[in-house]
């Protein structure tokens, strides 16, 4: 016995498969667009410029402090 719905014709099964392929194609395209958006580093820099500046300043002060501690030894 088949695992599908009893009584479905081959044409109905093909139609369902075609609909699922179309849905999958749309989902893949949407995912591709989202991945492109998230991996666009230039856009990410534009959108998070202030956070990057603060992070760079903190990292600079931390590295400078470590360098001063090493020179004192």
Task: Explain what you see.
With 73 residues, this protein is mainly α. It is 82% helix and 0% strand. The chain has 3 helices and no strands. The protein starts with 9 loop residues before the first helix and ends with a helix.
> Which spans have pLDDT < 50 for at least 5 consecutive residues?
none
Query: Secondary-structure element order, as H and E?
Result: HHH
Q: How many structural domains are formed by the residues?
A: 2
Largest sheet, if any? none
Fraction of residues in β-strands: under 5%
Helix share bin: over 70%
Structural class: mainly alpha
Total beta-strand segments: 0
Supply the number of helical segments.
Answer: 3
Quaternary state reads: single chain
The coarse overall form would be rod-shaped
Q: From the alpha-carbon coordinates, what is the Rg to the nearest angstrom?
A: 28 Å
Give the overall average pLDDT.
91
End-to-end gap:
81 Å
Secondary-structure map with pairings?
Blueprint: H1 10-38, H2 41-47, H3 49-72
At a glance:
The protein is mainly alpha-helical. The chain contains three helices and no strands.
Protein traits:
mainly alpha; 3 helices; 73 residues
